[in-house]
């Protein structure tokens, strides 16, 4: 049997359907990872590769954290599973209280899920169900944003705005629409573009079109990450919140990436952008990407409506077999211990200006069309390569940087950076030097 890449046979290579449509480009020469520690992966060829994307925007505490492994091990030896149906265990209650301590009293419950996608589905369903239970049965419309990404489920793709994710599915949820993407017209803006309320006020046009009585909820990311690291103008979320409040529309802020330190605070919507959403979703870094875990934070009063109706047959029958899985909760507790001890929820704000200068230093390359940044996030948008497949240049850079020891993320024409929060300024220099060299070599 012939051996292909990574020491796998052709049959083995064919057997795993790699997620996301990048298969076409990536499966031809997959990169295999064998080990991970601190900021580094080690490939099957023994190469050390600095992780400049926190895995997939999720390993914020860095890799190989023995404390998490130990907590998971001990949990599995003590209570490996507790059915989520009509039973539970202590950990999710304790974890919820601990997480809620980072939010104002406006939030009162946490619902656990296994991914960002499930967090989005859960929040969307909660929003719809809340209005139904409140007697506002006409409120069924869900509004997302162009280039928004909330996951792979039908709810998420119906409100999401990345055309590739929904192209093959004509039968999505009915009654959805999208706000236009909030992106400044001028390239190379550092941090948030200048205040421009017209972006958020596009919601008023949708209210005019459909009437507020039919709109249940709006869902947006603080920064659209998968859409290309698009940073909305200053005051965007605040204005959206005002309009939603005025028109009795629930606001869901998808902090699957942006919570837990990515933008310099435990929860960016509340602390950085000064709004109180009705639901905050998170996942990714909650268990540092090592065990699937996500959560929906619910504003006070919402749960009470569900409770007040729960003696009827219209209970909110929603959950997952692995909701509040004991090992995942134990991992999240250990992650909180680490983040609190090492000050990682606030680390991005210390590094932000250094990071900003560093990423914007790549502006000189003729292949670079725009650079955007916020917290410890950056997107470097390239000029598309004429006559090549979309994303060809970022794919080339992804491969070349990997060979030179840096993992970046190719995201259409945008190269995304999202390093672990344990990064030092010298590591930032290293990433930028490799990127700068490799940009310089592009044809
Ligand atoms: N929301 C956002 C903002 C995301 O970035 C992602 C994943 N990139 C998701 C939801 C979906 O998360 P998951 O892949 O864990 O389902």
TrEMBL record:
Cofactor: pyridoxal 5'-phosphate
Gene3D superfamilies: Aspartate Aminotransferase, domain 1, Type I PLP-dependent aspartate aminotransferase-like (Major domain)
EC number(s) reported in the record: 2.6.1.18
Organism domain of life: Bacteria
A GO biological-process term: biotin biosynthetic process
Molecular function in Gene Ontology: adenosylmethionine-8-amino-7-oxononanoate transaminase activity; beta-alanine:pyruvate transaminase activity; pyridoxal phosphate binding
Organism: Endozoicomonas numazuensis
Protein name: Omega amino acid--pyruvate aminotransferase
Family: Belongs to the class-III pyridoxal-phosphate-dependent aminotransferase family.
């Amino acid at each position: 049997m012939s051996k292909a890449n990574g020491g796998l046979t052709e049959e083995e290579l064919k057997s795993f359907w790699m997620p996301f449509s990048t298969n076409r480009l990536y499966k031809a020469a997959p990169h295999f990872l064998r080990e991970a520690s601190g900021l580094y992966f080690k490939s099957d060829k023994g190469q050390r590769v600095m992780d400049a994307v926190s895995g997939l925007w999720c390993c914020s505490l860095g890799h190989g954290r023995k404390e998490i492994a130990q907590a998971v091990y001990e949990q599995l030896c003590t209570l490996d599973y507790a059915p989520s149906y009509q039973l539970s265990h202590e950990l999710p209650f304790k974890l919820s209280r601990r997480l809620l301590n980072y939010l104002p009293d406006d939030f009162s419950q946490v619902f656990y899920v296994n991914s960002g996608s499930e967090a989005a589905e859960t929040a969307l369903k909660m929003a719809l169900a809340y209005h139904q239970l409140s007697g506002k049965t006409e409120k069924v419309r869900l509004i997302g944003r162009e280039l928004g990404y909330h996951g792979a489920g039908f709810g998420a793709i119906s409100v999401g705005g990345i055309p590739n994710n929904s192209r093959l599915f004509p039968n999505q949820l009915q009654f959805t629409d999208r706000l236009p993407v909030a992106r400044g017209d001028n390239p190379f803006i550092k941090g948030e573009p200048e205040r421009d309320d017209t972006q958020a006020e596009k919601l008023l046009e949708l209210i005019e079109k459909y009437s507020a009585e039919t709109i249940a909820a709006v869902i947006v990311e603080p920064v659209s990450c998968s859409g290309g690291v698009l940073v909305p103008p200053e005051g965007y979320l605040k204005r959206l919140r005002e309009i939603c409040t005025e028109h009795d529309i629930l606001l869901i802020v998808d902090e699957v990436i942006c919570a837990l330190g990515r933008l310099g605070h435990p929860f960016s919507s509340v602390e950085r952008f000064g709004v109180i959403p009705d639901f905050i979703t998170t996942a990714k870094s909650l268990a540092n990407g090592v065990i699937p875990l996500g959560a929906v934070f619910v504003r006070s009063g919402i749960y009470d409506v569900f409770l007040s109706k729960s003696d009827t047959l219209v209970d909110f029958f929603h959950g997952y077999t692995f909701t509040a899985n004991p090992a995942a909760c134990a991992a999240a507790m250990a992650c909180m211990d680490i983040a609190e001890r090492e000050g990682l929820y606030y680390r991005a704000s210390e590094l932000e200006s250094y990071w900003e200068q560093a990423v914007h230093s790549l502006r000189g390359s003729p292949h670079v069309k725009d650079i955007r940044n916020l917290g410890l996030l950056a997107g470097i948008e390239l000029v598309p390569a004429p006559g090549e497949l979309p994303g060809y240049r970022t794919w080339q850079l992804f491969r070349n940087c990997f060979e030179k020891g840096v993992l970046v993320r190719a995201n259409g024409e945008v190269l995304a950076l999202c390093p672990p929060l344990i990064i030092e300024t010298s590591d930032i220099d290293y990433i930028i030097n490799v990127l700068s060299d490799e940009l310089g070599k592009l044809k």
